């Protein structure tokens, strides 16, 4: 039995069912040493800010050793912190300091693939065809007379091809290797026992250091059909050759057993993009993952029927496995809500992203405020991506020579990429770098910040009762104090078209107006919080109000 435990005050075994979890993209949170790159020192300096915001846990995108071909999701060593961020001792100190403030730490693992700089892959390249080292990956000879054609026609998640050909020591073309993402991220073969054993050891390594949970990147992609068939036109459940394979569930049962062997609930959170909500819920059975990201709600357009459908389907799918839902408006891959909700098409899909899409930021900001309250009132846990609490928009005019995201380059420049939602946070001051780096820093932020962000700094917003930050702080304070919020039942109330009205318990009512007209509020004792000022007692369009309904 593992013994690494959380502080006594943190031993609520069900903490994860109602938690507010704040996502930190380290490179862009805060720069502690002045090199223009966010780091662990910067995070430690701002833990007080996160406590004041009212979060229960922080989730870090990968902080490991990495060449950063894909923002850290190309890991070369899971037991070493990327030197640009700090070192292992600093990570351990951060975990302890955050926990002392009541904030748990969740880290990312990326089990589908590793970096092409990882020792395993370098050994595989050196060992050659047929070697045991290559069996940890998907090396295959090509098709065609001279092996010039890829082994399959699978399409990359980042656009383009999924196979790259190697070169033999004598300079002749060699075997191909599989990568569902970039060539710098070779896929692992999860049929190999060493791959499974290594990842179980990685979990123990970090649980021993006090992390409270693990977020699993691309959690539905690990297992491939060993025959490597082409993707059917309409694959049935479990029939896709590289997605949502039934064999995945045994892997996560093993991971859950490891997590459950530690004192204090250690959670497993899956990143699972599946349209089939019933298949999605299978990952949340009691002996598998604790929770998974609900991307269906995030992807929906600004429409009451769309949101209601998503909420109902999500709650219904989670109910049979007694798992809490999760609610999220954005993350480090997704267009920020202030920008997304101001567009003609307010839904989200990677394949629809295009450079130059116009937006109305004032409309988007109003809707993002309403969405923040709506999601915070829904049953389950809540995720907040850094900067959304400030109302930051997507930065869509970054200089071309500063872009780094492979999604942009592999699309031939059609997809704007994800750099725009990863621009460093503004903390204080009226000019860049807005306190992101310390005074006298020798290097500017790794991505430039707009001058217009002067009014969106933490310093500017924290004393402004009309700001997004003030709204988030009040919302999370109320969410924490209201027993009915977080995990628990939801009861819909009859309402007019274009509105969402539901109760949480006997004393709390959420009213969201997605229509084009102001509406009268239901009978209530008090308004706890509203995303917009009332208009002659009416709730304006694109607004949410929280009501106290009885003593």
Structure notes:
This protein has 551 residues and is an alpha/beta fold. Helices cover 24% and strands 15% of the residues. The chain is built from 14 helices and 20 strands. It has an 8-stranded parallel sheet. A 5-stranded antiparallel sheet has the order 14-15-16-20-18. Strand 9, helix 6 and strand 10 form a beta-alpha-beta unit. Helix 5 (193-207) runs parallel beside helix 6 (248-260) and helix 11 runs parallel beside helix 14 (468-481). It is globular, with a radius of gyration of 24 Å.
In round numbers, the mean pLDDT is 94
- State the shape: globular
Structural class: alpha/beta
State Rg: 24 Å
Share of residues in helices: 10-25%
Largest sheet: 8 strands, parallel
For the termini, the CA-CA separation is: 47 Å
Which segments are poorly predicted (pLDDT under 50) over 5 or more consecutive residues?
Answer: 1-9
The number of helical runs is: 14
What oligomeric state do these chains adopt?
single chain
Beta-strand portion reads 5-15%
Q: Biggest sheet, strands in spatial order?
A: 11-10-9-5-2-1-13-12
Total DSSP E strands: 20
């Amino acid at each position: 039995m593992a013994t690494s435990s959380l502080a006594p005050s943190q031993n609520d075994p069900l903490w994860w069912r109602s938690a507010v979890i704040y996502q930190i993209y380290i490179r862009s949170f805060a720069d502690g040493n002045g090199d223009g790159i966010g780091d662990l020192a910067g995070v430690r300096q701002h833990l007080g800010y996160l406590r004041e915001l009212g979060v229960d846990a922080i989730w870090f995108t990968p902080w490991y050793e990495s060449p950063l071909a894909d923002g850290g999701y190309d890991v070369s060593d899971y037991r070493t912190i990327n030197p640009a961020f700090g070192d292992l001792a600093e990570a351990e100190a951060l975990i302890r300091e955050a926990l002392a403030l009541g904030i748990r730490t969740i880290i990312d693992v990326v089990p589908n693939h590793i970096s092409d700089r990882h020792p395993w892959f370098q050994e595989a390249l050196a060992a050659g065809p047929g070697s045991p080292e290559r069996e940890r990956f998907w090396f295959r000879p090509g098709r065609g007379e001279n092996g010039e054609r890829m082994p399959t026609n699978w399409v990359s998640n980042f656009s383009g091809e999924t196979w790259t050909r190697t070169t033999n020591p004598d300079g002749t073309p060699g075997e191909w290797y599989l990568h569902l993402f970039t060539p710098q991220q070779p896929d692992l073969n999860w049929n190999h026992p060493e791959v499974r054993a290594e990842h179980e050891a990685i979990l123990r390594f970090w649980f021993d250091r006090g992390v409270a949970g693990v977020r699993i990147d691309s959690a539905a992609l690990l297992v491939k059909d060993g025959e490597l068939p082409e993707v059917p036109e309409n694959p049935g459940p479990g029939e896709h050759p590289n997605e949502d394979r039934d064999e995945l569930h045994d892997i996560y049962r093993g991971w859950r057993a490891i997590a459950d062997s530690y004192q204090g609930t250690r959670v497993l959170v899956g990143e699972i993009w599946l349209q089939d909500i019933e298949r999605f819920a299978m990952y949340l059975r009691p002996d598998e993952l604790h929770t998974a990201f609900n991307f269906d709600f995030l992807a929906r357009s600004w429409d009451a029927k769309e949101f209601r459908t998503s909420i109902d389907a999500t709650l219904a799918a989670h109910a049979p496995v007694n798992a809490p839902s999760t609610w999220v408006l954005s993350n480090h891959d997704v267009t920020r809500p202030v920008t997304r909700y101001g567009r003609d098409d307010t839904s989200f899909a990677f394949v629809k992203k295009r450079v130059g899409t116009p937006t109305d930021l004032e409309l988007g900001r109003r809707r993002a405020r309403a969405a923040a309250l709506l999601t915070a009132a829904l049953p389950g846990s809540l995720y907040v991506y850094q900067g959304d609490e400030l109302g930051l928009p997507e930065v869509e005019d970054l200089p071309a020579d500063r872009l780094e995201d492979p999604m942009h380059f592999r699309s031939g420049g059609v997809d704007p990429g994800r750099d725009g939602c990863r621009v460093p946070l503004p903390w204080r001051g009226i000019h860049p770098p807005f306190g992101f780096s310390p005074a006298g820093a020798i290097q500017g932020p790794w991505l430039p910040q707009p001058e217009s962000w002067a009014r969106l700094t933490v310093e500017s917003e924290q004393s402004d009762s009309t700001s997004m930050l003030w709204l988030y702080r009040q919302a999370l304070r109320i969410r924490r104090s209201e027993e009915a919020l977080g995990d628990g039942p939801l009861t819909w109330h009859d309402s007019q078209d274009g509105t969402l009205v539901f109760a949480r318990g006997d004393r709390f009512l959420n009213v969201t107006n997605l229509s084009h007209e102001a509406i009268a509020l239901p009978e209530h004792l008090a308004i706890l919080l509203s995303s917009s000022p009332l208009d002659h007692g009416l709730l304006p369009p694109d607004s949410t109000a929280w009501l106290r309904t009885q003593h």
